[in-house]
Each structure stands twice: as structure tokens, then as C-alpha cells.
Design brief:
Rna Polymerase Sigma Factor, Chain: A, 2 domains, three-stranded antiparallel β-sheet, globular
């Protein structure tokens, strides 16, 4: 095994989980994420001699992984393998008591490393140009400058896409969900179709103590 191959094996071990998580949030399909992540690392290995260290390795790999995901999303195969509609996903989320999922947060859930199923489907429905910066910044924890490096765009453009993605996400959730503040005063949401199901009822506001 050559030194270059050993170095790449170390790179693979160090960054595989991050790249896989990023790709999964783009496509929302575990087996497809496995395939596209392998494709991304294969392309990275083939182009390893072009990496000059101008950006961190993680950002370089994210850029390659994004391109691999875009190649798939633009392909006829992607259209044939289209995910279930947002309506179907929301219905499943609202009607399945076995999930045990807590109501999703409209503002904070998308910023956690693991997004709830509700928020994942809204994020997936965003255009890729808005979805990717949202995932990179709010899920992967990249700075605005790092997002710009992955997207190969200006810092201002990256900030604008992130802002538009957050605004669009919030608009969709306000349209499709009933928003309320939970006991921690966190803005949370319930799918509109769950209002009459009794499965996800907003918590009852605390009553003032009797005098």
C-alpha cells in the first residue's frame, strides 16, 4: 500500500460519517446515501492529486459529495425513484402513534444534528440551492464562509441562500402546521391534519394556582 493510499484511507476514516450524514440529509434515503457517499469518496480518490490544501479536507469532500448528489438528482433515475410526497409523509407522521416522536420545533429542530422526521421532509422539499446551505450551516455547523467555499459562491450569496432557505422553511411550516409554544416556551409545530386525531395535542397551559 502506497503512502498516498494510506493517507486517503485515513481521510476516509476521519470524514466518512460527516459526508454520509450530509448526503443523507440531501436525499433522505439511507441506501442511496450509502451509494452516493461511496461515489463521492471514489471521485475524491481519483482526484486526490488535485487537492492542494487550500481548504480543509472536510470542505473539499463536502463539495465533491454535493456534486455527486446533484448528478443523481438531475438524472432520470432520480425522477423514477422519487420520494413519497410531502403530503404522504406528513400524514404518516401525524397518524402513526408508534413513532413516539415529540412535536417538531419550527426554529430549532432544523439546527440539531439529527432533525426530526417532520422537519426533514420540509427541508427535503426545498430547492437544492436553498436546502444545501441550510444543511451545511444549521446541521453540519459550517460558518457562512465555509458554506460559500463548498458552494463555490461568494460569501454574500451564501448568506442570502441561507436566509431564503430559513424563510421558506418557516413559511411552509406555518402553512402546513399549527404552531404553538411548548412548556419550555420553544416554538413547536403539529401537522395540520393531526389536530383532530388526538395523537399530538398541544400541552395544556398551566393554570394559575388557587389563592
Amino acid at each position: 500500500m502506497t503512502g498516498t493510499t494510506r493517507n486517503f484511507d485515513a481521510l476516509y476514516q476521519a470524514h466518512y460519517s460527516d459526508v454520509h450524514r450530509f448526503v443523507f440529509h440531501l436525499v433522505q434515503d439511507p441506501s442511496l446515501a450509502d451509494e452516493l457517499t461511496q461515489d463521492a469518496f471514489l471521485k475524491a480518490f481519483e482526484s486526490r492529486d488535485t487537492f492542494r490544501g487550500d481548504a480543509p479536507e472536510r470542505l473539499w469532500l463536502f463539495r465533491i459529495a454535493r456534486n455527486a448528489a446533484l448528478d443523481y438528482l438531475r438524472s432520470p433515475r432520480s425522477r423514477e425513484h422519487a420520494a413519497a410526497s410531502l403530503d404522504e409523509q406528513l400524514e404518516e407522521y401525524a397518524l402513526s402513534p408508534a413513532t413516539g416522536a415529540a412535536p417538531c420545533s419550527a426554529e430549532e429542530a432544523a439546527r440539531r444534528t439529527e432533525m426530526s422526521g417532520c422537519v426533514q421532509q420540509f427541508v427535503l422539499s426545498l430547492p437544492e440551492t436553498l436546502r444545501t446551505p441550510l444543511i451545511l450551516h444549521d446541521v453540519e455547523g459550517l460558518t457562512n464562509a465555509q458554506v460559500a467555499a463548498v458552494l463555490d459562491c461568494s460569501l454574500q450569496a451564501a448568506k442570502m441562500r441561507l436566509h431564503r432557505g430559513r424563510e421558506k422553511l418557516r413559511e411552509m411550516m406555518e402553512e402546513r402546521c399549527d404552531l404553538f409554544h411548548d412548556e419550555r416556551n420553544v416554538l413547536s409545530c403539529l401537522p395540520v391534519d393531526s389536530r383532530d386525531s388526538g395523537l399530538f395535542a398541544p400541552p395544556t397551559p398551566p393554570q394559575p394556582a388557587a389563592s
